[in-house]
Amino acid sequence: MGRQPEQTVEQFETGAKKLAKWGSLLISLAGGEPLLRDDIVEIVRVIGQWHFPFITTNGYLTDEELAQNLFSAGLWGVSISIDYADAVRHDRARGMKGAYEQAVQALKLFSRARQYDWQRVNLMCVLLDDNLDQVESLIQLAAQNNAYFMIQPYSSEKTGSTKFYPKAANGVSNHLLALRKRYPNFLSNPLFLSNFDQYLNGGVPDCAAGRAFFNIDSTGDIAICVEQRDRSVANLYTDDMFSIGRNLRDGGKDNSCRNCWYNCRGEVESLYHIKGLWQSLPTLLFDRGQPET
Question: How far apart are CA 72 and CA 111, in angstroms?
Answer without folding.
Answer: 13
